[in-house]
Amino acid sequence: MPDNALEAVGLHRAFGSVAAVDDVSFVLPEGGSLGIVGESGSGKTTTARIVVGLERADAGEVRVRGRDRTAGRGRAGRLARAREVQMVFQDPYLSLDPRTSVEQVLRETLRLHFPGTDHDRRVRELLDQVGLGTRAADARPRQLSGGQRQRVALARALAVEPAVLVLDEAVAALDVSVQAQILNLLADIRERTRIGYLFITHDLGVVRHVTDDVIVMRRGRVVEAGRTSEVLAAPEHPYTRLLLESVPRPGWDPAAIAAARRAL
Prior knowledge:
The chain has ten helices and ten strands. By secondary structure, the chain is of the alpha/beta class.
């Protein structure tokens, strides 16, 4: 059995009287790919933020390679936790400094986590790894396409060699052809590095093609989990079936879907 890159055990997070995450548990093997799917408000993004450390769980535990993510205090502990899990957001433009070139973005990350070393070779490696090349090194975010900016965000996340990469709707804002390029790139990176991917998405097409396992969330709880191919081929929970039936296709009846949603 492969070692686990990530384990979430009994996660709870409430905002007032609303339980955004309610007893959520899952396992991501090293080099594996796990999808968390659900509609807006299902709790999937809050779960991702807890995993990364942007939200604190009211109860439960997150472990990376068997170690509790809450262990370790001070700046050194925070940097160590940041190296374990990195996040790539839906809109990379919001997480990139518009005044900073691609090379400066990568150098700043490397200086923060690996001070006192020469980073020239590593910057070139990262640019090559995400398919940008050195020609993009001097460009600023506004000079890049959406797909190129997402590649920069990936390079920055990969710079610290994380165990887990959390991708929160990371291809949702891209054109379909660019989505395919980024997803193929992610598949190549996973094969070479054994990073574990946690995909947060509402797009069942993405889940079908890039994840090994999937959990389905509704109102903060996991309602179904299993191998992606099995869950999507023969869903057991009515909510999972509703998600699949909501995907537009020939003969699709939105009125019937709306009625099924109200009944559920």
